[in-house]
Structure formats: C-alpha cells, structure tokens
Amino acid sequence: MLELRQVSKVYGLGAAEVHALREVSLEVDPGMMVAVMGPSGSGKSTLLTIAGSLEEPTSGQVLVAGHDLATMSRNDKARLRRQSIGYVFQDFNLLPGLTGAENVALPLELDGVSARRAREAGLRALDALGLADRASNYPDQLSGGERQRVAIARAVVGDRQLLLADEPSGALDSENGETVMRMIHAACRQGVAAVVVTHDAQLASWADRVVFIRDGRIVDQTAPALGPESLLGQDR
After folding, report:
1. Residue 147 to residues 86, 125, 182: CA-CA distances in angstroms?
2. What pLDDT is stored for residue 100 in this prediction?
3. Which end of the chain is less enclosed by CB atoms within 10 A, N or C?
4. Which helix (DSSP H) or strand (DSSP E) does residue 221 occupy?
5. What average pLDDT does range 224-230 have in this prediction?
C-alpha cells in the first residue's frame, strides 16, 4: 500500500543544508501497522508528510496503492489524499467553524457521500472514541484530548486505504491513548495500512513492526510478526 524507495529529503543549500531523510526505504502492506520511533528531529514527521504526498522528496520514489506520486498531477494527488489517505496531525487541523461531527463527516461529503450518510458515519466513529455526547461541540469547546480524538475519527472514517498518524496519543491519557490504538488496529484488521509515529513504547507494541529512525536514517527495525500461515511450510 505504501512504498518508499531510497527516499531522501534535503532542506536549504550549501552550508545551511539539513538532511531530514537519508535514503529511507520502507514497505507497508495492507492490513499492517508500522510504528516509527526516534528522537525529536530524527525525520519521523518528514517521513509522514512525504508518504502522504504533502511534500516531495529531494530524491527517491514514493508509491501509494501502486501509484508513483512523482507522475501524478497536483489534482490527482489531492484526490488521492482525500479518498485514500487518512491523516492525524499533532496540531489536529480541525476547522473551527464546524462541530466535531461536521469535521469528521466533511471528507466524506467532499467525496459525494450524502450529508445524512456522512453524518451517520461520523457519529459512529465519534461514538467508538467515546465522544458521542460531544459531537455537537465546536473545537474550541473541546479539550486537547477531545480534539485529538475528533481528528482520529476524521482520519479513520470512510474507506481509507492508508492511515498516517503523527503522535496520535500525544494529547491523551493512557486509557484514551489505548482506545486510539485499538481503533487504528481495528482499521488495519479491515485492510488499512497504517504508519504511526510515537514516542510511547507501550503504544508501539500494538504495531506489527517497529522502525527506529535517527538522523534521517532507518537504523533498526523489528521483524514483522509471523502469522499462523507461516507454520504451513514447517516440517512436523
């Protein structure tokens, strides 16, 4: 669902150059959750913005659902982001003039889903995150943790194929953080591919694979868990 091939990103020129990513390669299959961990400034957020077509790499290749982003027009990328990619940003990116339910339903309505069906789907997503009673509140009437959960509901609603989450539990307590990871995990079980940046090792333990990044390079990663089908090839 997502493939990064030798992706590098450089900001600035000459002595002011900053190498945010250095020849990063990563594959995320449908149904897989990959957690990305590393110190601040290691390139984690840059990896997400490039994976989601919000930024272009300096070199390398990015493919989403088989589409090479470098060959796509700006409009095609926008359509891909709207229809196939769900984002959870650190700063929520909620529209202040819309209620929680309206923020969640908006991407579906932009794709032509009727307002009634979009609202119903949005309310279900909010209910799954314990926010059914806050659906009519505007963002400035919600706590930071509640705004984060609204942002997560917006990211997972609809038929997304790829979920990109930057510290999705950063503004949440441990109980709500686990609820968020359960929701992302449930989406993966339905075939969604997810890349989750987190500092929390306990939350990263939900992932099928953990990738460690430092100074723009992947320095280590855990092996994906073997499923029951792996036993079929073993001698008994």
Report:
1. 16, 13, 18
2. 95
3. C
4. strand 217-221
5. 48
